[in-house]
Amino acid sequence: MIQIETIHIEELRGIRDLKLNVIGKRFAISGPNGSGKSGVVDAVEFGLTGDISRLKGKGTADIKLSEHGPHVDKRDYPDAAKVTLEVYIPELNKRATITRKIKSPNKPIISPADSDIISVLKEVESHPEITLTRREIIKFILAEATQRSSDIQTLLKLDDITTTRSTLNSCVNKLSSSHKSLSSLVQTTVDSFRRHLDVPRLAPDEILPVINKNREILGLDPIQELKKDTNLGEGVSKAGNTSKLAFNKESAQKDLSAITKTIESGLDDTAKKALSDIVEKLIEIDEDPSLLNLIRQRSLIKTGLDLIIEPKCPLCDEEWDLQSLRIHLQTKLAKSELAEKIKQTLVENGRVVSQKIGELQELIFSITKVANLQKMEKLSLDLASWKAEITTLSRNLNSFDGILLVREQLQNFSLIPEGIAKKVDELKAKIEAIPEQSASEAANTFLTIAQDRLKSFQEARLVEVRAKKALEAAKVVYDTYCEQAEAKLQLLYDEVEQDFSRYYQQINSDDEGEFTAKLEPSQGKLGLKVDFYKKGMFPPGAYHSEGHQDGMGVCLYLALMKRVLGDRFRFAVLDDVVMSVDQVHRRQFCKLLKKEFPDTQFIITTHDKVWAQQMRSEGLVSAKTSIEFHSWSVDTGPVVATNEIWDKIQADVDANDVPSAASKLRRYLEYVSREIADSIKAEVPFKADGNYDLGGLFSPIISRQKALFSKAADSAQNWGNKAAE
Amino acid sequence: MSKIQTEILNGFFSELSGKKEIDDETLTKLKAFLLDDKKPKVNDLVSIFSGPEDEVP
């Protein structure tokens, strides 16, 4: 990450030409409302990210960076509006300059254009949260759980985890679907091979006796062991007996019996029930077309929800309030639940029917071969057409869109095409009429067809095993990623919780030193409950004051940023974020920043003079590391005040304006006296209105100082330290 | 890529390297796929798992 050394703003927002030397780790910019502080914040954000978040969100529908980014007098000259930042990159120990113009916000000029520098600045660009306003801190605290989850996920850059998880899950689903289809295909080749062999199951002790009986007829050696490369037809005469031409009467009759049985019985009861459910749901959709719209919109809405990263519709670019847009889409999503259930029923039942009719493909293929050999060309064509129809139907039944494509076919479903039964009967009669084959011819063709079907089975099985392995691997990958992500996210939320609680305890050590908080992630929501004086855990807005909520917001932000960037959290702009926090707790806030973030550069703005002085008296910033804007005009932009009060007093004296000098001196001494009285615990008579003047403070301070010096002298005497005494 | 995604992926790849279901080639391809900053495409991932298989069962 980076630290800023100088800022040069030209013709941007309310600033004409302003150069700031940002010295040190912490830099304060103070000034009354409307003095141009936010202009500097906008410029820093623009210089680093190319965007100004203040110009987005609720109530900014008509505001555009290109039109309203430049100074009002330079609206037509976006080329003149630019920011130049000189930055130091601690991790590279390099310095660089980045210049960005409103005219081309996404094309910064970086010098030197080293790849490592560009890479760091690119990363900074993706962290707009480095500028924090009060509006933003409160959204973490008071937002509802879904919105908080979304905002914090965005801040923590967790979107890529969701995307990866979803991609891995989709991959598992695709491979699972593919594996189911291939398993079904294997089963058809098993059925075909088993039917040919006429064995109850495909096992070596069932297969080999049948094969060897036929080999013995041909005088061939028996096969002792069934291996993956075993050729059942080894040694068989190939003359006129290729796998394409081989005709075995008995095998053909078995295939024809099987298809006749299917023609007579149609689908089994399970497939019939599934088909009936499909038709029922299709009728529901026909009767209420809005269901189909909701189903179609559902995936669009889901995608849309993922795409909402700025306050406008990702489709039409219409400006929206971010939260309202999300709620609008979430409501639509909830309405589509019923429609989604209908879709799921259709797809699940579609798979059942698809598997059943898919099993017919291999049988039709075998019968087609027989029909070809018997020169029944019309039947061959009808069978080929039937097979093609079944293949298409089976494929379509595996997806929702596919089912809609074949809805008419399903509503008038007929497994067996018209006229096929009669033609199959003709073929059956024709086969019956063929004279019995000689024993050697039957054995010869039997073995050829057996080898052919074994090969089909092996090929289908090979593909299915690959698919199964792929599915298993994808499942392992998905499960492993989910386990790792869950563990890391839990750890992350635990760490954020602990840091958040610790920071808040430090700010409120006087009354909430044992404060705890609990982040509760669950299915896209992130609940936040905080302890209220040991009375229980409640939402932050339930009992805590606005000032305490502001404190929580800043603490949660710092805890999140520490987790997002770790040691690389080196820069942040805090734009008036503790304005509701009282003076006592602000002092603790100064200590918190110094203790917990010694290496982070904070640019802190405030309109509150007391807070500006307090930052200096607490040593958070110094005279050199703070500036004050005393006024602003359209023509001049912010006017920087002289930093030292003594310079101002001297200026009054030089101008012979003694009353003004005296007034400044008195106000300053009152402020300083209050701070001194507080730090040395002077015993000032209590005033209910808290209005302490210099006379009331001075005397108790001197008394307390004397008492402390006296104690110090006693201590020095005890130690024998004459010099100190 | 976010810091936490990088941490998750580090643990994830380390855990995967000990799994019998994942061979070295698949792991290498997965690394290239998931470490790429482009939006991941499901079909590209499917093709990583559906690699060639020589063994006939």
Shape of chain B: flat
Helix content of chain B: 55-70%
Largest sheet of chain B: none
Which value, in Å, is the CA radius of gyration of chain B? 13 Å
Q: Please identify the structural class of chain A as seen in this structure.
A: alpha/beta
Q: What is the residue-mean pLDDT of chain B, rounded to a whole number?
A: 81
Biggest interface and residues each: A-B, 42 and 30 residues
* Strand segment tally of chain A: 14
Number of strands of chain B: 0
Task: Please tell me about this protein's structure.
The complex is a heterodimer of chains A (725) and B (57). Chain A has helices at residues 37-49, 65-68, 115-125, 134-142, 145-155, 159-197, 204-217, 249-265, 269-287, 289-307, 322-335, 337-358, 360-373, 377-396, 400-405, 407-411, 420-433, 439-507, 540-543, 546-565, 583-596, 609-617, 645-654, 658-680, 694-719, and strands at 3-12, 15-21, 26-30, 82-89, 94-101, 104-111, 131-133, 517-522, 525-531, 537-538, 571-575, 601-606, 626-633, 637-641. With 725 residues, chain A is of the alpha/beta class. The longest helix of chain A has 69 residues, at 439-507. The model of chain A has no long low-confidence stretch (mean pLDDT 86). Chain A contains 25 helices and 14 strands. Chain A starts with a strand and ends in a 6-residue tail after the last helix. Chain B has 57 residues and is mainly alpha-helical. Chain B has helices spanning 3-16, 24-35, 42-49. Classes of the chains: A alpha/beta (725), B mainly alpha (57). The interface between A and B is large, with 42 and 30 residues.
